[in-house]
C-alpha cells in the first residue's frame, strides 16, 4: 500500500500539536487550580514566582525533577515502574479520535482536524479512558502497602460503577446520531447541541466524568484523610508527577469528549456565523470554539472540587448503582422512543 507523503506529514504534525497541547495541560491547570481555589476561598494564591504566579508550575516541575527518586525495597519493581507510564499513556491515547476542528486547507489539500477518524471512535475513546484504572491498580498492588492497595481497589470499584452509567449516557447520544463516528456526531449538532436535546444524558456523563477522573467529590482513591494519598503513597519525584499529569490529561480528555458529544464539538455557539466564514477562517474559529468549551469544562472541574465535600464510600456506591444507572436506562428508553417515533430534532439533525 502506497503511503501519501503529505498525509503522513500532516498526521505527524497533528500528533505533535495534540500531544504538545495535552502535555502542557498539567502545568496550566496547576496554576489555574491554585488561583481559582484561592479566589473561591478568598485567599491570594501564588503571586511571587513570576507575574501573577505564572512561573509557579515551572518551579514545581523543577522541584519534582530534582527531588530524590526513592524506590522502596519491598515493592515489585517492574510493575511499580510501569504503573505511572501506564496511567499517562492511556490518558494520552484517548484523544486520538476526538475531532478538534473542521477541515483545514493546506497547499490545496484538505486536512481533517482529527488524528484518526475511525468508525468506532466512541468505543475507542471509552476503552482507552477505562484502561487508566490499570495504572492505579498496578501502583496500589506493586507498592506492597495495604493503604496503597486499598486505594487501588477503591478506584477499580468506583470506575466500574460510574463507567457503566457514563457508557449508558453515551448510548442515548449514539441512538440520536445512529453512528459511532465522532465526526458524524459533531456534524449532527450543527443546528442544535445534544445537551439541549438530551440534558439527562449530559448530566449523567458529567457526574461519571468526575468519578472517572478521581476528582472531588469522587476522589476516594486518594482520600488523604483516610489513605494518606492512597494508591501513590510510595511514589516520589517524577513517578509521582506522572500520576499528577495523568489526572489532568484525563480531565482534558473527559472535557473534550463531553464537548464532542453534547456541546457541538467545534461548532460555534452563534447560529449562522459559520456560513459567513471562509474555509480556513472557519477552521481557526472552530479550533478556538473547541478549546474554549474544553477550558470552560476544566474550570467547572476546579470549581466543583473547591465547593463540594467528599462523599462517603457508601454514598458513592449508592449514587452510582441506585440512582445514575436506573436513570441512564430510563433516559435510553425515552430517547430511543423519540428517535423511533421520528420526533423532529431527534434521530439526526444535520
Radius of gyration: 21 Å
What number is the mean pLDDT? 87
Distance between the termini: 34 Å
* Strands in their spatial order, largest beta sheet: 1-2
In N-to-C order, the SSE pattern is HHHEEHHHHHHHHHH
Give the uncertain stretches in residue-range form. Answer: none
Give the percentage of residues in beta strands: under 5%
| Total beta strand runs | 2
Written description of the protein model:
- The two termini are 34 Å apart.
- Helices cover 65% and strands 2% of the residues.
- It has one domain (5-53, 61-341).
- The chain is globular and about 60 Å long.
- The protein is built from 13 helices and two strands, in the order H-H-H-E-E-H-H-H-H-H-H-H-H-H-H.
- Strands 1-2 form a two-stranded antiparallel sheet.
Q: Notable features of this structure?
A:
two-stranded antiparallel ribbon, 65% helix
Quick take:
The protein is mainly alpha-helical and 350 residues long. The protein has helices at 5-40, 56-66, 77-93, 121-130, 132-142, 146-177, 182-187, 194-197, 199-212, 224-227, 237-262, 279-305, 313-341, and strands spanning 103-106, 109-112.
Topology:
Layout lengths: L4 H36 L15 H11 L10 H17 L9 E4 L2 E4 L8 H10 L1 H11 L3 H32 L4 H6 L6 H4 L1 H14 L11 H4 L9 H26 L16 H27 L7 H29 L9
Amino acid at each position: 500500500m502506497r503511503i501519501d507523503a503529505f498525509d503522513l506529514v500532516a498526521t505527524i504534525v497533528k500528533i505533535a500539536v495534540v500531544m504538545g497541547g495535552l502535555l502542557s495541560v498539567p502545568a496550566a491547570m496547576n496554576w489555574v487550580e491554585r488561583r481559582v481555589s484561592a479566589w473561591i476561598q478568598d485567599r491570594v494564591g501564588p503571586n511571587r514566582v513570576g507575574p501573577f504566579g505564572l512561573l509557579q508550575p515551572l518551579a514545581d516541575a523543577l522541584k519534582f525533577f530534582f527531588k530524590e527518586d526513592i524506590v522502596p525495597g519491598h515493592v515489585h519493581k517492574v510493575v511499580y515502574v510501569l504503573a505511572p507510564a501506564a496511567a499517562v499513556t492511556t490518558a494520552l491515547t484517548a484523544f486520538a479520535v476526538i475531532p478538534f476542528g473542521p477541515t483545514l486547507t493546506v497547499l490545496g489539500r484538505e486536512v481533517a482536524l482529527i488524528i484518526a477518524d475511525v468508525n468506532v471512535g466512541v468505543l475507542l475513546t471509552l476503552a482507552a479512558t477505562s484502561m487508566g484504572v490499570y495504572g492505579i491498580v498496578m501502583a496500589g498492588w506493586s507498592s506492597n502497602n495495604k493503604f496503597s492497595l486499598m486505594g487501588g481497589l477503591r478506584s477499580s470499584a468506583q470506575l466500574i460503577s460510574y463507567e457503566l452509567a457514563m457508557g449508558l449516557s453515551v448510548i442515548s447520544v449514539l441512538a440520536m446520531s445512529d453512528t459511532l463516528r465522532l465526526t458524524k456526531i459533531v456534524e449532527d449538532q450543527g443546528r442544535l447541541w445534544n445537551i439541549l436535546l438530551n440534558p439527562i444524558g449530559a448530566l449523567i456523563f458529567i457526574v461519571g466524568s468526575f468519578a472517572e477522573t478521581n476528582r472531588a467529590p469522587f476522589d476516594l482513591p486518594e482520600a488523604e484523610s483516610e489513605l494518606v494519598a492512597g494508591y501513590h503513597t510510595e511514589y516520589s519525584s517524577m513517578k509521582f508527577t506522572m500520576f499528577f499529569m495523568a489526572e489532568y490529561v484525563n480531565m482534558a480528555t473527559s472535557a473534550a469528549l463531553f464537548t464532542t458529544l453534547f456541546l457541538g464539538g467545534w461548532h460555534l455557539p452563534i447560529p449562522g456565523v459559520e456560513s459567513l466564514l471562509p474555509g480556513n477562517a472557519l477552521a481557526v474559529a472552530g479550533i478556538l470554539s473547541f478549546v474554549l468549551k474544553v477550558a470552560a469544562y476544566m474550570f467547572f472541574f476546579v470549581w466543583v472540587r473547591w465547593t463540594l465535600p467528599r462523599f462517603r464510600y457508601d454514598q458513592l456506591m449508592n449514587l452510582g448503582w441506585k440512582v445514575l444507572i436506573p436513570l441512564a436506562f430510563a433516559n435510553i428508553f425515552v430517547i430511543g422512543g423519540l428517535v423511533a417515533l421520528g420526533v423532529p430534532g431527534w434521530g439526526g439533525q444535520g
